[in-house]
Amino acid sequence: MNKSLILKDVCILRDGKPLIEVDHIIQAGDTLTVMGPSGVGKSTLLAFITGTLSSAFTGMGQILLDGENITQRPSHARHIGILFQDDLLFPHMSVGANLAFGMPTGGTKSERRAKIEAGLRDVGLDDFADRDPATLSGGQKARVALMRMLLSNPRALLLDEAFSRLDAEMRAQVRDLVFRTAKERELPVLMVTHDAEDAKAAGGEVIELENLSQT
Ligand SMILES: Nc1ncnc2c1ncn2[C@@H]1O[C@H](COP(=O)(O)OP(=O)(O)OP(=O)(O)O)[C@@H](O)[C@H]1O
């Protein structure tokens, strides 16, 4: 099986007019960086891929994940992980319970706990499992949100300005963790960013979306 995320003849329409067009293959472990001016349609493209497109838009074309056509599947059945800049943690749950949410079922309680603790160590948050999210800094919350996504065992990763709230040092660390994990787990990554450093760190292809309805 060819592990990849393929956007085949994707065209998103608004009010019946083409907004953006994308035709691209992202191989497992590679990152495609999507840039372009504000409002061009970058987040809309991600919503089409996750199956959460607003009814204001019409998505055409196909999304193939690891060779399977997932275009018509409901969002929860696509197994795509997405990380936003403002990812919120559930405030009424501990950090550990936030991480457990969305983790595939199976395994003993102690195996699940060990996975959560290893995940926290990976993002430099050892011993944070019992903490209340309200006591975390913005950067710490972002790292928990990243690990929550990774622990859900996604088959592809989408990043929507995911690092922009982190300071420079933390940004580089979290970014490296994402790209390293994607390579280890052979996951294709699509990253939306305005930041040239993010694009450079990803090391893959960069495309600039243009707004077709303004041309
Ligand atoms: N629910 C909606 N209904 C109608 N139009 C929308 C809706 N959501 C977004 N839009 C419009 O669709 C266009 C694309 O929006 P989108 O959020 O995808 O842009 P973007 O490239 O991600 O922008 P930014 O870089 O500012 O986040 C914009 O003109 C936006 O105003």
UniProtKB/TrEMBL annotation:
The gene is thiQ_2. SUPFAM superfamilies: P-loop containing nucleoside triphosphate hydrolases. InterPro entries: AAA+_ATPase, ABC_SmlMolc_Importer, ABC_transporter-like_ATP-bd, P-loop_NTPase. Its EC number is 3.6.3.-. This is Thiamine import ATP-binding protein ThiQ. It comes from Octadecabacter temperatus. One of its GO terms (molecular function) is ATP binding. Transmembrane segments: none annotated. Gene3D superfamilies: P-loop containing nucleotide triphosphate hydrolases.
